[in-house]
Design a protein that fits this description.
Shape: globular
Low-confidence stretches: none
Strand content: 5-15%
Strand order of the largest sheet: 8-7-6-9-10-11
Number of helices: 28
Length: 676
């Protein structure tokens, strides 16, 4: 008895998160408080009790061999000229920080590119007609990407040009795509989709990727003890691997998903925990790969499953999503967003989550522990992503019997509806969103089917109604207040007439805040951007999809260059990138491929090179001289946004469009001159 009292006393002493200090979102605050009342630990409480390693945050802790870890903190009285810090092997702080940095690039590139490989393998099954579940849904997109992979879409027969058979094209595209991961010769084919000036710059710098896997493997080799010890040379390989991600694996993932599942076009949905329904079976889909979730969406809408749910006492089935699988099924089917990365435990804390089905990336192992406090079933589906907890259920995805797998998962959720424990508490907060934007749909909105073109966007940047473009993306990080950085940066940008392109958890955060609707322009935007949004009928913040869909931002920037009047390369554009609350290695890879593509890129929260000022200066200054883009860091969201705005203004000045000018109705000859 005395022992029990001691345990309870100790439990009372455990520090807990202040819900309001932890998040700006009311629904999240309510669920943190509920979890604490029920004695359920979440990431927000662990943030209070588990402090980060300061030396690790600085990027100067090396554990690449068993003589370490070698910890090289930045001294308070740091003197660059007399920096004698060395690891056991003699590695300097700059070498250690560079090795750690590009290992993060390798980890992020591997995650994105392995995602792309999985999609390519399913695409191959579809092309070979090995599965009835997956078929070519968007033939136009297939024909668009085929030439970029070296696949001809026409053939000469008796001196006449004829269209090739679509099945032949699909098979050759599948073969060419899969070859990109491991071919013995050549370069990543999609690199030539970048503006010509950018491609030639990469060629000059010697960073054109040879194949996707090789660049990741070479990073791991170079960062082994006793190999590459020059931070500049290490970063050369980091750049090459990042380009292989952004202009290779991620771009292939996006394109092949569009061909298989349909290219997204704008649609209406909702976001936040309030999308869950007490009287329905709540099945939450979480992760990053859409190949199984696409089928789950289809199966859950069948009469068979809806009738089965009603037999079990539910009114129907409510699907919702977390993280990038959420963004994938939102942009193609309108499935609502349940929440961001940091809300995954909280979706279970509602007591209404009957099953959470997960695939890969950003899945907290603790959801299994939280689920054991409720009735929720956790279903893992990927062979490389299982959990040690025996309470989880593993239903391994295989494209050849995807429908059977999906039915089993949906039925499992339905059967669990009757097993709910205690009170269900679903927050009321949710907001309408318009999502599903991409290169094609933005072009359509700017001019319709007849004259869709990025010229309209360029024209409004040139005449000053739109100040520039901000790409704001990335994760949540429990070390900073949930969603605060995301929302403050985006609001400051659109207030100052910067149109925002968003993906990932930033997109979900913007949705929760009500920034993904055309109506929000009148409330939050400067007069120029508000006028454009009202005229064209778009939100000031365009949701472009999941984290692999950052490739859409790269291609949109390329289209802006092609439309004319704003320079010859991405680095000439009045544009900037941002990840205010990043936490994953994927974010570092994304940031690096944007920098390598010529984009000034600001990160918030923490930056993993602060312990090596010389190397950090290379990233923050010298890299701009090499690639026209560079890294920067700013914790404060408003200062963060203004760093982006100031950069955009400097690019406007360089282009000679920094002064407001009257709108000019252009005739054909003037348009030709602009495009030239």
């Amino acid at each position: 008895m005395a022992e029990v009292k001691e345990i309870k006393k100790a439990a009372k002493k455990v520090k807990k998160a202040d819900p309001v200090a932890a998040s700006i979102d009311v629904a999240t605050q309510q669920m943190i408080a509920r979890a604490q009342e029920l004695g359920v630990e979440t990431v927000f409480d662990r943030n209070i009790t588990l402090k980060p390693c300061n030396i690790g945050n600085q990027g100067t802790c090396c554990k690449n061999c068993s003589m370490g870890p070698c910890r090289l903190p930045l001294p308070k009285d740091y003197d660059e000229a007399n920096d004698n810090r060395k690891g056991m092997c003699g590695a300097t702080a700059n070498t250690i920080a560079a090795r750690n940095f590009i290992r993060m690039v390798a980890g992020g590139a591997a995650a994105h590119s392995d995602h792309g490989r999985s999609v390519a393998e399913v695409f191959m099954s579809a092309a070979r007609k090995e599965t009835d579940v997956y078929k070519i849904k968007d033939e136009a997109k297939l024909l668009q990407i085929a030439p970029a992979l070296g696949v001809a879409i026409t053939v000469e027969v008796d001196g006449e040009t004829q269209d090739r058979d679509i099945d032949e094209i699909a098979l050759e595209v599948a073969e060419a795509a899969l070859n990109e991961w491991g071919k013995a010769e050549g370069e990543v084919l999609y690199a030539k989709r970048a503006p010509e000036a950018r491609y030639e710059l990469w060629k000059k710098q010697g960073v054109l990727p040879r194949n996707i896997d090789r660049e990741i493997v070479e990073i791991m080799h170079r960062t082994h003890i006793g190999v590459d010890q020059d931070y500049r040379n290490l970063m050369k390989q980091g750049v090459r691997a990042a380009i292989a991600d952004g202009w290779g694996g991620s771009m292939l993932a996006t394109d092949l998903q569009d061909v298989l599942f349909g290219t997204p076009y704008p649609l209406v949905s909702e976001a936040n925990l309030g999308v869950m329904k007490e009287d329905m079976v709540n099945l939450v889909i979480h992760g990053h790969e859409p190949v199984l979730s696409e089928v789950i969406v289809e199966v859950a809408q069948t009469k068979e499953m809806i009738d089965y749910a009603k037999e079990k006492g539910a009114k129907g089935i409510q699907l919702s999503g977390i993280c990038c699988t959420a963004n994938e099924i939102l942009q193609r089917h309108g499935v609502p967003l349940c929440g961001t990365f940091l809300q995954q435990e909280l979706a279970i804390v509602t007591g209404a989550c009957d099953a959470m089905v997960v695939d890969i990336q950003c899945i907290m192992q603790n959801i299994a522990a939280v689920a054991e406090c409720f009735h929720t079933k956790i279903v893992t589906t990927h062979p490389i992503a299982r959990m040690e907890q025996q309470s989880t259920i593993h239903i391994e995805f295989d494209e050849h019997h995807a429908v059977e797998d999906a039915k089993r998962i949906v039925k499992l959720a339905i059967d669990n509806f009757a097993n709910r424990k205690g009170e269900v508490m679903i927050p009321k907060q949710k907001a309408p969103v318009v999502a599903g934007f991409g290169v094609e749909s933005v072009e359509y909105h700017l001019g319709g089917t007849f004259r869709g073109n990025y010229y309209t966007l360029n024209d409004n940047i040139i005449n000053g109604r739109i100040r520039g473009i901000g790409g704001v993306v990335g994760c949540n990080n429990a070390r900073v207040r949930h969603n605060e950085g995301h929302i403050e940066v985006v609001k400051e940008l659109i207030k100052n007439d910067v149109i925002v392109l968003t993906t990932g958890c930033n997109a979900i955060a913007c949705g929760m805040e009500g920034l993904l609707t055309p109506e929000s322009a009148k409330v939050f935007c400067g007069p120029g951007l508000a006028e454009v949004c009202e005229t064209v009928g778009i939100p000031p913040v365009l949701h472009l999809g999941s984290c692999v869909d950052n490739s859409r931002i790269l291609l949109a920037a390329t289209e802006v260059v092609k439309a004319g009047g704003l320079g010859n390369d991405i680095s000439d554009l009045p544009a900037a990138g941002s990840a205010p609350e990043w936490m994953s290695e994927k974010a570092i890879s994304i940031g690096q491929y944007f920098v390598a593509s010529g984009v000034y890129t600001v990160f918030g929260a923490v930056f993993p090179t602060e312990g090596a000022p010389v190397f950090q200066r290379f990233l923050f200054e010298e890299m701009e001289q090499m690639y026209g883009g560079m890294w920067d860091f700013e914790k404060d969201p408003i200062k963060h946004a203004w760093k982006m705005i100031n950069h955009i203004d400097s690019k406007r000045q360089a282009l000679g469009i920094d002064k407001a000018r009257d709108r000019v109705m252009m005739d054909f000859s003037m348009r030709q001159a602009l495009e030239g």
